[in-house]
Structures are given as structure tokens and as C-alpha cells.
Amino acid sequence: MTERSSKPQRSAPVSERVKVRRRPARGSYELDLIRSIFDDALLCHVAFVEDGNPVVLPTLHVRIGDELLIHGARKNRMMTRVAAGAPVCVEATVIDSLVLGRSVLQNSVNYRSAVVMGEGRAVQDPDEVRPRMHALIDKWAPGRLPFLRPLTDAELRSVLLVSVPITEASAKVRTGDANDADADRSRPVWAGQLPLRVVAGSPVPDDYVPADMPVPDHLAGWGEGRSGA
Question: Which structural domains are found in the chain, ordered by start?
Fold first, then answer.
């Protein structure tokens, strides 16, 4: 499981690479906020350069302490590039609501986003890889791990796990209503916020699930108590 720090909040270094320039009042370098955004986001995007071209790819992630962990096949181009120490940028965003204003430009979203810059390292020790892979499962399907077949040594060798430290990072958050002009506020147009959250549908079994097998509690109650769900 991800670890939330009980220590007093501290800030990440405010480097030029992660400094929030547009709307700096929305920016934050508090590590507790940055951690929480990566915890709440189900997906992150990893940016790197390959043969002089920018590449951005989505992937699953998990945070443990102050490291972000992503995984893939050993021949995956993103994973091999990042594991080799190439500069990397990891970003995650949680959309909290649609912001509905009275003019075209004042329709927006409330969001929480976080960016981490740095270099990745390959996690090689199987005794380190195994619990981190377990943490990844526990992030997006809490309670499922005890039901699963354990990882084999061969499976561990097939996985490339990369850690990116949360040291050079920033967050940006928008809250509140639209910034309508005073002259527009008298227009007969509904304005405000439409909250959004991730909602699970009814679980759909595959062809090999016995007809009398009930949906496990960890799926039936998926998302309960989870921020953004």
C-alpha cells in the first residue's frame, strides 16, 4: 500500500524545470499534496525523448514513500529508456469537476495535477520487485492480492520495474467557480460546477468464472472511501 507521511509537510526543491509559471498562485511544492495526487490518479503519463523526438505514453503507477514506480516488459522502449537513466517527466491529473461559466472562455475544469522530473533507476533485486508489484495491484484493486497466484521467479525476471524519485516536483490545483465578468453574471445562463468522480460499473465475469461464484467484496465495493471515486 502507499504510505502517507505523518511528518510535517515539506516542500520539493523549486527548480526551473518544475516551477509553475502560468497562474503561479495555483502552484504548490508541498510533498504531501504531490503524493496525494499520484495516489488518487489511476493513470500517469511518462514523457521522454527517443531519437530526438518527444514521446509521451500512459501507464499504471504506484507511489511508495517518495518514489514513483512504473513497470513493463523488459523490451518495452519506454521502460528500457527510463531504466537506463534518461531524463524523464512523469505527470498525473485528477479532474474534480467541470466549471461552467457564462461565456465561451470561462468554461473550464477543476483539477489537481502533479509533475515529477528526474531520472529513473531499475529495481533489480527480486526481494524489492515483488512487494512493489504487490503494491501496484493493491493500488487499483485493494483487497485482491490474497486471491491471486503468487508471482513466479520467471515472471519477476520478465518484468522491468523502474523507480522515479519524487524530489524535483510540483503540483497545480484549480478550485472554485468560473471567473465570469461582472457584465456576464446577469445573463440568464446556469453557471457553477458539475462534480466528477470515477464510478465502477457492474463487474463482468470472464468465460471461466463459475456461474455460482459471487462477485468478491473487493470488487463489489470498489472505490468506496477512495478520494475521487
Answer: 24-183+191-220 (2.30.110.10)
